[in-house]
Amino acid sequence: MRVALLNPVFWPEVRRGSERVARDLADGLIARGDQVRLITSHPGRPETVVEDGLQVQRVWRPPGGRRLERRLYEQHLTHVPLSYVALRRFDPDVAHPFFATDALAATRWGRERGRPVVFSFMGVPHRQGLANRRWRKELLVRACAEADAVVALSREAADAFAYWLGVEARAIAPGVDLDAFTPAPQERAATPTILCAADPAEPRKRVGLLAGAFALLRKRHPEARLLLSGRGGASDPTGPGIERRDLDGREALVAANREAWVHALPSFGEAFGLVLAEALACGTTVVGSNHELVDGVGEHFTGDTPGELAAALERALDRARDRATPVACRARAERFSRHATAEAYAALYAELRG
């Protein structure tokens, strides 16, 4: 099967949510024998290259996107016509966008060619998120209406589609590379260590709330450490025990997960939490909001105060001391293998083509 995945940006420019989900799905489909091309954009010259077995086509991203964003228009608009042209030239059996703007190109192509389009949404639709940028709600509603199938990353996210948009979305969890993310061959850090691989600049991830909770936690555990992603900007959290790590590379993220006692993601509106699934694959317990991931192997957190989060972190540290925890965490992660995700999408593609 020829499959085109579409995402506005890709690594090395960005190595986070949808970029990693798309890469892992591509690897799983390639392992099945499918031909996959990722169509994305960048500000440089157009190029089509093979990166670790995946065809990556980068179309030119015309300037003006940041100016539109400053005026609160939806992100990633300027490259869409060029992605449409790239899609026509590749002419796959299935087009699979991961962002509503790319869905504009994919659904137009799908209508013209009579071929299916699968739209995967990376977040949880809710009123605040849909209203905070111009055209966001309209683009999302149009993508859902014109795609042949809509996919959410969890059952909770699919329920939000039904509640807020009246859309029936299927739930397919993103896949984890269980060969790369494995438990530590040695003991974890000697002192209580909490990891958060989320982008501190993204308000929805609430890294500032985590830093406040960590400050309370250090009153009981003065030797505790908090590992945050990035070099640290002027507005990023700082304080005793807070360290910075470059976690963009997979090897660095695996090493940090093996070192940490707990991986915390206190974000709201989180559809799944791939970084938490990867932590579980490393045998590391987690603090997060997704029941499907957390229940039984981590601590569930949906509160709003540093005190509530500090209490969840304390319970997670206690859980990390239990020798049975790494085995249970790894077993939970194995439910979300890259192979299982690829097979679920392949079955959906075949259903829509049939």
Question: What structural class do helix, strand and pairing data support?
Answer: alpha/beta
Low-confidence stretches: none
So how many helices? 14
Radius of gyration over C-alpha positions, nearest whole angstrom: 20 Å
Strand elements, count: 14
Query: In CATH terms, what is the fold-level topology of the largest domain?
Result: Rossmann fold
Let me know the CATH homologous superfamily of the largest domain.
Glycogen Phosphorylase B
**What is the arithmetic mean of pLDDT?**
94
Helix content: 40-55%
Share in β-strands: 15-25%
CATH architecture of the largest domain: 3-Layer(aba) Sandwich
What is the CATH C level class of the largest domain, in words?
Alpha Beta
The succession of helices and strands, N to C, reads EHEEEHHEHEHHEHEEHEEHEHEHEHHH
Q: What composes the largest sheet?
A: 6 strands, parallel
C-alpha termini separation: 13 Å
Overall form: globular
Number of structural domains: 2
List keywords for this structure.
42% helix; 354 residues; Rossmann fold; 14 helices; globular; 14 strands
Report on the structure:
By secondary structure, this protein is an alpha/beta fold. It folds into two domains: 2-175 and 337-353, Glycogen Phosphorylase B (Rossmann fold), CATH 3.40.50.2000; 193-335, Rossmann fold (3-Layer(aba) Sandwich). The chain is 42% helix and 17% strand. The chain has helices spanning 17-32, 65-70, 80-90, 100-113, 127-131, 136-146, 155-165, 207-217, 250-259, 274-281, 291-294, 306-320, 325-333, 338-353; strands at residues 2-6, 35-42, 47-51, 54-60, 94-97, 118-120, 149-152, 170-171, 193-196, 225-229, 242-245, 262-264, 285-288, 299-300. Strands 11-10-9-12-13-14 form a six-stranded parallel β-sheet, sandwiched between helices. The protein has a five-stranded mixed β-sheet with strand order 3-4-2-1-5, with helices on both faces. A three-stranded parallel β-sheet has the order 6-7-8. Strand 12 (262-264), helix 10 and strand 13 form a beta-alpha-beta unit. The longest helix has 16 residues, at 17-32. It is globular and about 65 Å long. The model has no long low-confidence stretch (mean pLDDT 94).
